[in-house]
Write a structure and sequence with these properties.
Length: 208
């Protein structure tokens, strides 16, 4: 029998090495979602801006999609001030992108029980806010839809606070009632370049 030469062993060794390099490269190219799981960081499960690409429609009643409509309904129920609406809209978007409480759509987040009071079953306002359409003529509604449109299509870099900021409450709207239990021991998010009355809105990050 003819003895085996060195080259006979080199072929399978090189093949194994090439396979290992390929697998390592694939691992390094994993999405940020997978990387976030390993490092403990909270990252978007599905980033709105990443799914939209660069084709952003110009705002009009005709271009309002279902996501923007539900976002507008929610922020309109919370406040009629545009600067406050924008921040509330980012809270809603943060919830969608992190799939807070298992909800991954704007409609699901808004209708999630006991999260946004105007949409709770039994609320006298529920029917009104759910009935708003792109062609409704409620005072300030057109401007509200524009705020929702802008936040929905904004790049992630425009987020005004951490993606973990998914809660807020209004002291003004809770007169005679205690602050929510989840605020105990928590400090509100410090807003930069924002002049928001803390008695009207306080935003919180990292609430489970």
């Amino acid at each position: 029998m003819r003895p085996l030469g060195k080259n006979t062993f080199m072929v399978p060794v090189l093949a194994i090495a090439l396979l290992a390099v390929t697998m390592l490269s694939a691992f390094q190219m994993l999405s940020p979602v997978t990387a976030g799981v390993s490092t403990g960081r909270i990252v978007p499960m599905v980033s709105v801006s990443q799914t939209l690409g660069t084709d952003v429609p110009e705002f009009s009643r005709e271009t309002i999609n279902n996501n923007v409509l539900w976002l507008a309904r929610c922020i309109y129920s919370e406040t009629k001030r545009a600067e406050e609406q924008a921040l509330v809209a980012w809270v809603v978007r943060n919830r969608v992108e992190t799939r807070y409480r298992g909800e991954s759509s704007f409609r699901g987040v808004v209708l999630d029980p006991y999260q946004f009071s105007a949409f709770n079953r039994g609320s006298r306002k529920r029917r009104f806010y759910r009935s708003l359409s792109p062609y409704s003529n409620a005072r300030g509604w057109l401007r509200t839809m524009k705020v929702a449109h802008n936040v929905y299509y904004s790049d992630e870099s425009e987020r005004p606070f951490a993606i973990t900021t998914r809660h807020f409450y209004s002291e003004r709207s809770m007169r005679g009632r205690r602050a929510p239990r989840w605020t105990r021991g928590q400090r509100p998010v410090r807003l930069t370049n924002q002049r928001i009355d803390a008695r009207r809105f306080r935003f919180y990050s990292g609430i489970s």
